[in-house]
Specification:
With 353 residues, the chain is an alpha/beta fold. It is built from 13 helices and 13 strands. The protein has a single domain, classed as 3-Layer(aba) Sandwich (Rossmann fold). It has a seven-stranded parallel sheet, sandwiched between helices. Bound molecules: nicotinamide-adenine-dinucleotide (NAD).
Length: 353
């Protein structure tokens, strides 16, 4: 493949789950050079590609000394840095601001006059526009209204990133493209990666890797609110494809959903994972999370299909199989990352992930 042949690419947040999956895909599709900026706040170094074309700058993209190293030489920038995730941002809104909205503002300001830059692709989140409903959901499309009332500082930061991108596009012609992901799962999402961020969600960071880890240990999967919420699960390698499509075909100033378009309940997800891992423990029902008004949601795939030619290729069953195999192969690595937080987890485990 040669889609990124000879291109020089910067990936901010490139050691993370999705970022590292993207870096590997870029290198596999012929990128000439991939520069990765990451402060390892929610990432493990082992995710960095072992490739002579990849360079790693450890530090925050909100830091002037780090930005000074980024010169006007990139064809494409992908910005995935974030303060992961909703619960961490609720525990520490200031840290969220510093590592989420501020990273976006500082990056835009630094690159606004870069001449070589053809596209800056920003990772936004479908949750910032999804309707808060437990009734039947309809596919959220890119024109969905933006609420002024969000459930977490994380969600506020993600949409502020879009606001800044729109401003820099209009005012400075920065070729900013927004990619709104749905719920990503897959290889390289390491439970406990990075630093303690104030809650057990540092370890139990997303529903799919949490369920897989617990199921492999024959533990009961916790179904908050009975698992009736629905999500649109998309495999990380598909998201990497979608991000690359945004870079190659996305129109500056535009926003694209990167979604599977398939709605799956958390209960069905748990049942699939229990079946695939042969977990004998039945799920347990837990109360709803007090901050979370998100009920049923999934993304519309129409615009990305029409304008980017993007369609997710890996179905949930196959994606789960691959993620389960990767988890088994990386048990020690994941256990080591979880154990680094054992002290906090043991004292806070009573607080729900
Ligand atoms: N995973 C999902 O389901 C999902 C859904 C919607 C949107 N997104 C977005 O996708 C992007 C990647 O998410 P992810 O799931 O891979 O999370 P992640 O935590 O694995 O990746 C985020 C990366 O940003 C890095 N980072 C944090 N602060 C930084 C800073 N100041 N400077 C440089 N790097 C910094 C972290 O160390 C980490 O490597 C994020 O922007 C996230 O908001 C993810």
């Amino acid at each position: 493949m040669s889609r990124f042949n000879q291109q020089r690419v910067l990936v901010v947040g490139g050691a993370g789950f999705v970022g590292s999956t993207l870096c590997h895909a870029l290198l596999n599709t012929g990128a000439a050079a991939v520069t990765i900026v990451d402060n390892l706040l929610s990432a493990d170094r082992s995710n960095l590609p072992d490739d002579a074309r990849a360079a790693f700058i450890e530090g925050s993209s909100a830091d002037d000394a780090v930005l000074a190293k980024l010169r006007d030489e990139f064809d494409v920038i992908f910005h995935l840095a974030t303060y992961h995730g909703n619960q961490s941002s609720i525990a520490d809104p200031i840290a969220d601001h510093a590592n989420n909205s501020f990273t976006t503002l500082k990056l835009c300001e630094h690159v606004k006059n870069f001449h070589t830059l053809k596209k800056l692709v920003y990772s936004s989140a479908g949750c910032t526009v999804a309707e808060k409903t437990f009734d039947d959901a309809s596919a959220t499309d890119e024109t969905a209204p933006v609420s002024l009332y969000h459930d977490s500082p994380y969600q506020i930061s993600k949409i502020i990133g879009e606001f800044y991108g729109n401003y820099y596009f209009r005012r400075h012609r920065l070729p900013f493209v927004k990619a709104r992901f749905q719920n990503v799962y897959g290889q390289r999402e390491i439970l406990g990666a990075g630093e303690w961020r104030g809650t057990p969600a540092t370890v139990w960071r997303n529903v799919t890797p949490t369920f897989i880890w617990k199921a492999l240990h024959h533990e009961a999967l916790p179904l908050e609110n009975g698992g009736q919420a629905t999500r649109d699960f998309i495999y990380a390698e598909d998201v990497a494809e979608g991000l690359m499509a945004c870079a190659l075909k996305g129109k500056p100033g535009e926003v694209y959903n990167i979604a599977s378009g398939v709605e799956t309940s958390i209960k069905d997800l748990a049942d699939s994972i229990n079946r695939l891992t042969e977990n004998p423990a039945p799920p347990i029902i837990e109360p709803a999370r007090p901050w979370d008004r998100s009920g049923k949601r999934f993304g519309s795939t129409e615009k990305a299909k029409r304008e980017l030619g993007f369609k997710a290729g890996v179905g949930l069953e196959e994606g789960l199989r691959r993620t389960i195999e990767w988890t088994k192969d990386n048990r020690q690595l994941i256990q080591g990352c979880i154990d680094r937080h054992r002290h906090f987890l043991d004292s806070k485990e009573s607080r729900r992930a």
